[in-house]
Amino acid sequence: MARRKKIYEGKAKILYEGPEPGTIVQYFKDDATAFNAKKKDVIEGKGVLNNRLSEFFMTGLNQIGVPTHFIKRLNMREQLVKSCEIVPLEVIVRNYAAGTMTQRLGIEEGTQLPRPIVEYCLKNDDLGDPLVTEEHIAAFGWASQQDMDDILSLALRVNDFLSGVMLAVGIRLVDFKIEIGRIYDGDFMRLIIADEISPDSCRLWDIETGEKLDKDVFRRDLGSLTDAYTEVANRLGVMPKNSGQFSKPTLIN
Ligand code: 5GP
What is the pTM of this model? Predict the structure, then answer.
């Protein structure tokens, strides 16, 4: 079989040329990074869980008419997605204060925000993904005003969908990050949700206990990241019951 052409390797995923024009194979790695890759580890099973979870969220979004890049899952670690041009922004939606918002504004972690707050960061690792305003985005041509209107409405629809899905299984959606892609159909351009939606890119807290079930477990050394992601997957009914166990084979006496 011909070797696939690697298009791009990021911190958590590898992109390969897809089987048909306009498609890409997205491979989920087990690598975990935080603080702009200053903290790194390999977490066995993380890629499998994120592949499944991203499939679950993107499929749901497609079903309610929020367009995403997701086409189908191919295997444990790979999914087929639409090739798109990534808008160079990280779109963050916050429902409760956490992370950089608490650091920047001194709002206590966990404070419910009066309404969802949408922030934009420039996708640039060298600069540490700095927060930017719509003025910057327009002035530097990263997206048009029409794009920004569409991105805001997509981000809020994703927020409503994810908040509801998580609430139904006793999890609070504190915040999340999405990436937006452009796909072209002749002269017509459409914006879609791209990249991934998983506990790597969301903050998820148990509603009863406040337990963190997202990448903060890794960022802050709070325990097993696989256990946290498996808990999310199990509650959503995404993984078969025993597939969250990624322990190595052990000898049975
Ligand atoms: P914060 O700005 O508080 O660090 O992040 C806000 C939300 O966006 C969190 O859910 C966080 O996981 C997500 N997020 C922000 N930047 C990134 C990033 O570069 N990669 C990923 N995977 N998630 C991010």
Answer: 0.94
